[in-house]
Task: inverse folding
């Protein structure tokens, strides 16, 4: 029984509702059937009493003069042998005297004259005992357990003189077919009601339970900090349950926003720590690299080298230069004074990336809607856009599409770099702006990391999303009243200043 109560509401509500409907339908149908039986019985008794009083008044003078033949004709008059058996037609009519002996009967062979009523069978024996114990001056109705007959008794009396008791006998089987017809009709109506109400109950039960199930599931996910967002269409009413859903959606939105902010803060802190570490390593590595390159250059200047030594020196130079380029990517290079960004910069970027896009037959679209000049360092914005566009061109399959949108609104420059193609795997996407994390083979992942550092140092934010078959990088950079200048070199350490600090 406990397991039944532990069922989900999506099952429990329809089952409880269905059980209630079935019990109600059975109770109502049973009550109607019982009432139908009682009404049939009452109609039979009323008809029998009416017939009995009529016969009793007619038989009194006949029996008083001992006219047995006339009495027999009177008790046989209600029977119609030429017509089919009628539901209200009695099976037998007879009269007994005060000593319960038969005075006249409609069936003289089975109930001979002056026969004792108790000796005619079990039913009549019970009737004899009942009549002996009852008040014979009033009408009565007798129905004995196990008996197939119903007896209606009427006193044969006039004024204070009573000659006996008239008994009208009915067979219960006569009106049972009519009763069964009523019962079958009632059962059919009950079945029709069940056929209509049970599916409706199941639908509305599931309809009411499903929001509760979804709410319970969402509440269980709150513990993990990632509650699901329930659709407003799941329960669109404004009752207490609707208010509960609204409160849950508001709480879930707050929790998701808080979780996203915490992840962003953690990522920023992690990237800042990595940036400081990378800058320190780059600084320490640059010094010995510069010394080794100078030593090689000095060696070449001392005179001609034999072929084997020249090849070895060239190999060392190329290797050290590759290390220098890799280390250089860890540093955000800046100029003290930064030129303001203008529309010509976007045209330059378009011209620079056009050859790479043409080689892959890519469609490149620039949609620029900005003022002629914006108070942003042009070099840094160009560096970020070129990094993102080169990555987009590399990731886009031949014949694909790359697009750039630039909009100025609400004191910000909104940039969008999007490309068609397969999105990065989720495990790569979660760490895309970290160094040495790349979504393609052969990439070192430093371009996106440098772009992230640059955007962060400009006071903006960068994000990536995959929608409608595109990988989209979204950048928002705040506009300042004066063009900023960057004064320090180093990943995670560049600071913004204005040309005329107050």
Result:
């Amino acid at each position: 029984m406990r397991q039944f109560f532990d069922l989900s509401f999506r099952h429990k509500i329809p089952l409880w509702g269905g059980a209630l409907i079935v019990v109600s339908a059975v109770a109502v149908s049973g009550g109607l059937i019982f009432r139908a039986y009682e009404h049939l019985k009452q109609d039979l008794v009323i008809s029998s009493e009416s017939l009995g009083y009529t016969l009793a008044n007619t038989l009194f003078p006949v029996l008083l003069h001992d006219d047995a033949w006339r009495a027999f004709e009177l008790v046989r008059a209600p029977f119609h042998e030429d017509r089919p058996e009628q539901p209200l037609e009695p099976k037998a009519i007879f009269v007994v005297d005060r000593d319960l002996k038969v005075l006249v009967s409609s069936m003289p062979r089975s109930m001979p004259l002056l026969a004792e009523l108790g000796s005619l069978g079990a039913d009549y024996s019970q009737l004899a005992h009942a009549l002996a114990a009852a008040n014979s001056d009033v009408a009565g109705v007798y129905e004995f357990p196990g008996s197939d007959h119903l007896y209606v008794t009427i006193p044969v009396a006039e004024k204070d003189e009573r000659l006996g008791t008239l008994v009208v006998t009915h067979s219960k089987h006569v009106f049972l077919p009519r009763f069964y017809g009523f019962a079958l009709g009632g059962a059919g109506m009950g079945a029709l009601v069940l056929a209509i109400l049970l599916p409706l109950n199941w639908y509305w039960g599931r309809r009411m339970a499903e929001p509760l199930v979804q709410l319970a599931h969402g509440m269980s996910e709150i513990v993990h900090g990632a509650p699901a967002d329930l659709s407003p269409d799941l329960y669109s009413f404004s009752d207490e349950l609707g208010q509960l859903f609204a409160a849950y959606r508001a709480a879930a939105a707050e929790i998701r926003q808080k979780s996203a902010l915490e992840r962003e803060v953690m990522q920023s802190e992690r990237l800042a720590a990595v940036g400081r570490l990378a800058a320190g390593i780059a600084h320490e590595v640059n010094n010995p690299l510069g010394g080794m390159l100078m030593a090689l250059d000095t060696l070449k200047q001392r005179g001609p080298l034999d072929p084997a030594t020249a090849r070895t020196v060239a190999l060392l130079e190329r290797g050290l230069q590759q290390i220098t380029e890799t280390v250089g990517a860890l540093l955000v290079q800046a100029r003290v004074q930064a030129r303001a960004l203008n529309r010509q910069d976007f045209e330059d970027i378009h011209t620079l990336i056009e050859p790479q896009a043409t080689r892959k037959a890519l469609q490149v679209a620039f949609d620029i809607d900005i003022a002629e000049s914006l108070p942003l360092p042009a070099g840094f914005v160009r560096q970020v856009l070129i990094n993102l566009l080169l990555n987009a061109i590399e990731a886009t399959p031949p014949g694909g599409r790359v697009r750039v949108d630039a909009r100025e609104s609400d004191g910000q420059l909104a940039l969008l770099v999007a490309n068609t193609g397969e999105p990065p795997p989720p495990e790569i996407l979660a760490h895309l702006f970290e160094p040495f994390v790349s979504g393609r083979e052969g990439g070192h992942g430093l371009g996106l990391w440098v772009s992230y550092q640059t955007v962060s140092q400009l006071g903006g934010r960068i994000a990536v999303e995959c929608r409608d078959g595109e990988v989209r990088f979204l950048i928002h950079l705040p506009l300042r009243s004066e063009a900023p200048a960057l004064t320090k070199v180093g990943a995670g350490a560049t600071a913004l200043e204005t040309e005329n600090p107050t």
